């Protein structure tokens, strides 16, 4: 009846559309059910995945990361766990494994294994790349296909997730060997793909050459020229204008917006890009178009340092035309140095873009990046950052100038000031607590940026005039019971003690924290409870 009503707007009007979409629990068939224990439920889902998919660590890792993020969704609305939705999400609709025999140039029969894992077709055909690499196995293909669901959803297009490939290695193979393998591979794959069924693309080891052989064989077998069945083709035979550049450009655009939201600029930044395939090449191209300098890139043999930037046209010629190695690039220019088997993450830079393969950035690498002062990391590859590396990035905090809120007392403040990355301190709380914080900060020789006291319109300068102020941008906020009853005085950009009256409407909408420039709303504090805001990195040159 609800659906009929929605189709006939003349009967029920807009109000019923609003109710249907925003208050759907009124139609719940079991409104009296108990509240879900989210942590327990999600852990049970994950244990099922481990039991059903043994020996697949990459898939386990991807599932754990996705399920952990879904906890926040389920706490807000546990209806998303109804009808086995999450279990179905993590279980492929089809897992296809097949034999790929082919003959090498010496007349010997070689046998590889092919895969196609199709995850979700509820909105449209499966969509995802083919990877030819010796490391390929079922677990890797499943993790790639699982994450492809969410990548594709970001496009807003009606497509599902899928991934495929083989443990075949095209490196070192002749053109005829690659052709024979691709033809044998497609002999089986063609049963499972089609414009309205599954539309593969290229991935590691599958470029324009491989796509050409695959598509040619598909046409021979089916007798149809379905241009959409394989993406990544040349422009002269049904290819897209932007498909090759899409991922590399996208990760750089994303990084640019990330940095801008934290008052940083990609323009003028030093960037390291791992990899030298499609994603890496076009990430390098776009980063340098936007004013950054790419100081290093890599492949499996090592990395190339390029302090003055990358000659993109030369790199394209080496990798896309000649299918050479990054060492060939270094040998053809005086402005680059090749480091055989070197670790690209040791290069000092402001931005890191892992664009090669899964788990390429581990805990030790993350620690090195943090020590070298990297501001931001954006992932161009599929799951390139290990769990340990992610934890270290979170511990290190945000780029400079971004605030982290810490609740506690004297011990917490003492530990905070001892942290090697804390260059300055901003706090708000009661007068008594303020005195403690100031004493600890002065004893540690730390810089205090600003302070705001509950029940007072004072800043750092009015609280304790003798305290040295090292930052030119004080940050603070008036918090407490009176926040929603009178205009607050916020430490503004400028000299200590500067005041800015914030409207009641804006204060209610954003909270005191957003009114003074903090990204998250500042929580309320009362009594002897303290809120400490620590700068992770130097907010100004003066406070370093």
Number of strands: 15
Q: What's the number of helices?
A: 19
CATH topology of the largest domain: Rossmann fold
Query: Would you tell me the structural class of the helices and strands?
Result: alpha/beta
The strand line-up of the biggest sheet is 9-8-7-6-10-11
Strand content: 15-25%
Q: What's the main sheet like?
A: 6 strands, mixed
The shape is globular
Measured between the Cα atoms of the first and last residue, the distance is: 66 Å
Q: Class of the largest domain in CATH?
A: Alpha Beta
Mean pLDDT: 75
Name of the CATH superfamily of the largest domain = NAD(P)-binding Rossmann-like Domain
- The whole-angstrom Rg is 28 Å
Tally of structural domains: 5
Unreliable parts: 1-32, 398-407, 452-544
In words, what does this structure look like?
- There is one protein chain.
- The chain is of the alpha/beta class and 544 residues long.
- The chain has five domains: 1-33, no CATH class; 36-87, Orthogonal Bundle (Glutamate Dehydrogenase, Chain A, domain 3), CATH 1.10.285.10; 94-237, Leucine Dehydrogenase, chain A, domain 1 (Rossmann fold); 246-396, NAD(P)-binding Rossmann-like Domain (Rossmann fold, 3-Layer(aba) Sandwich), CATH 3.40.50; 403-536, no CATH class.
- The protein has helices spanning 2-7, 9-12, 14-22, 38-52, 57-76, 85-89, 138-153, 175-189, 208-222, 246-261, 278-289, 312-321, 326-331, 363-371, 387-396, 410-418, 431-443, 460-463, 504-515; strands spanning 94-103, 109-120, 126-132, 161-166, 198-202, 270-274, 293-299, 302-305, 337-340, 351-354, 376-377, 403-408, 422-429, 447-453, 530-536.
- Residues 1-32, 398-407 and 452-544 have low confidence and may be disordered.
- The chain has a six-stranded mixed beta sheet with strand order 9-8-7-6-10-11.
- Helix 4 runs antiparallel to helix 5, helix 8 (175-189) packs across helix 9 and helix 10 (246-261) packs across helix 11.
- It is globular and about 80 Å long.
């Amino acid at each position: 009846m609800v659906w009929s009503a929605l189709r006939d707007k003349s009967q029920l009007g807009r109000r019923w559309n609003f109710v249907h979409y925003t208050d759907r629990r009124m139609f719940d068939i079991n409104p009296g059910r108990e509240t879900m224990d989210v942590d327990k439920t999600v852990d049970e889902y994950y244990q099922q995945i481990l039991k059903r998919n043994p020996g697949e660590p990459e898939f386990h890792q991807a599932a754990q990361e996705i399920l952990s993020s879904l906890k926040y969704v389920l706490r807000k609305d546990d209806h998303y766990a109804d009808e086995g939705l999450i279990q179905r999400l993590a279980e492929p609709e089809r897992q296809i494994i097949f034999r790929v025999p082919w003959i090498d140039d010496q007349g010997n029969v070689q046998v590889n294994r092919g895969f196609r894992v199709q995850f979700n077709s509820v909105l449209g055909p499966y969509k995802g790349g083919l990877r030819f690499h010796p490391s390929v196995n079922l677990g890797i293909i499943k993790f790639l296909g699982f994450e492809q669901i969410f990548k594709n959803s970001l496009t807003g297009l009606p497509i599902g997730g899928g991934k495929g490939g083989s443990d075949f290695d095209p490196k070192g193979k002749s053109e005829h060997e690659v052709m024979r393998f691709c033809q044998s591979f497609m002999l089986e794959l063609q049963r499972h793909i089609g414009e309205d069924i599954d539309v593969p693309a290229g991935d590691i080891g599958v470029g324009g050459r491989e796509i050409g052989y695959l598509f040619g064989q598909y046409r021979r077998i089916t007798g149809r020229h379905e241009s959409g069945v394989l993406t990544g083709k040349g422009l002269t035979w049904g290819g897209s204008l932007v498909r090759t550049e899409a991922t590399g450009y996208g990760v750089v655009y994303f990084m640019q917006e990330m940095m801008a939201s934290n008052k940083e600029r990609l323009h003028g930044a030093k960037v390291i890009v791992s990899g030298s395939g499609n994603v890496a090449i076009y990430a390098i191209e776009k980063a340098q178009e936007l004013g950054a300098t790419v100081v290093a890139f890599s492949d499996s043999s090592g990395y190339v340092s390029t302090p003055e930037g990358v000659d993109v046209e030369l790199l394209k010629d080496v990798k896309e035309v000649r299918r050479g190695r990054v060492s060939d690039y270094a040998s053809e220019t005086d402005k680059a140095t090749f480091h055989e088997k070197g670790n690209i993450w040791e290069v000092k830079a402001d931005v890191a873009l892992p664009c090669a393969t899964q788990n390429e950035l581990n805990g030790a690498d993350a620690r090195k990046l943090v020590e070298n002062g990297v501001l931001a990391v954006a992932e161009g590859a599929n799951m390139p950052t290990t769990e340990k590396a992610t934890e270290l990035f979170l511990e290190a905090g945000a780029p400079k100038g971004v605030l982290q809120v810490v609740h506690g007392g004297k011990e917490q403040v003492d530990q905070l000031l001892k942290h090697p990355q804390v260059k300055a301190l901003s706090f708000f709380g009661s007068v008594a607590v303020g005195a403690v914080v100031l004493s600890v900060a002065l004893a540690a020789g730390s810089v205090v940026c600003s302070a705001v006291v509950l029940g007072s319109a004072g800043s750092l300068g009015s609280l304790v005039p003798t305290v040295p102020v090292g930052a030119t941008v004080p940050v603070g906020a008036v918090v407490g019971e009176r926040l929603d009853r009178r205009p607050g005085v916020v430490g503004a950009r400028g000299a200590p003690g500067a005041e800015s009256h914030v409207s009641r409407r804006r204060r209610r909408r954003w909270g005191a924290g957003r009114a003074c420039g903090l990204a998250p709303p500042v929580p309320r504090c009362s009594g002897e409870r303290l809120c400490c805001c620590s700068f992770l990195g130097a907010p100004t040159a003066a406070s370093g």
